[in-house]
Amino acid sequence: MARQTTAVAKDAACDATSGTTVTFDVHFRAGVRGRRRLRTGGRPTTPAVAPGRIPRISRLMALAIRFDSLIRQGAVKDYAELARLGGVSRARISQVMDLLSLAPDIQEQILFLPRQASGRDRITERSLRSITCHVDWSKQRAEAARSLLRSTPDHESGCPSRGRPERSQPSRENGRGKETHAEASHR
Q1: Spatial contact of 167 and 180, defined as CB atoms under 8 Å apart
Q2: Per residue in 43-101, pLDDT tens?
Q3: Which domain range does residue 122 map to?
Q4: What's the first-to-final CA gap in the chain, in angstroms?
Q5: Distance CA 72, CA 65 (A)
């Protein structure tokens, strides 16, 4: 609530009828214990925020960078201490910190993803796990180009299997037909 206030300055040489008039804007601001405080000047305007929300993967990437700087500065000893402070498991901290092994240009793309208006994020941390396990940045870029340009996220949960069958691949054949690992575990 902005108000315009007029103050009359009285000078010793002037009488009350020929005083100088000073006009300025004031506004009230919340003070201590609910009191309103009078402030001079116009009400500060809040900056316009773009619609939508920042994708979760962008926030996780920024968090990984921040965690790395805390460890490098010595403010936090290790991942275990980060996990205790954050109230998450050490495995989850490792998953988030694995984002730092991505190529710098992929990290930059993740940080500057456009805001999400509604719905689920297109790129998830889980969909990036298969990319982070590659040490070679050129392989990461090729894998990122294949998997991140898809319209739906890939639900692979980690690095490609090294000679082990995936849970959805047939594990054996019996009289009932092919059976997957998941089906075998439910018997």
Answers
A1: yes
A2: 777 777 778 899 999 999 999 999 999 999 999 999 999 999 999 999 999 999 999 99
A3: 56-138
A4: 69
A5: 11
Contact 29, 36 (CB under 8 A): yes
Q: Tell me the C-alpha distance between 107 and 96, whole Å.
A: 12
- Mean pLDDT of the region 143-169: 57
Question: Do 49 and 81 contact (CB within 8 A), yes or no?
Answer: no
Torsional sign, CA 54, 58, 60, 66: negative
H/E segment holding residue 177: strand 177-180
CA 150-118-122 angle, to 5 degrees, is 20
Tell whether 29 and 64 lie within a shared domain.
no
d(CA 143, CA 150): 11
pTM above 0.90, yes or no: no
Number of domains in the chain: 2
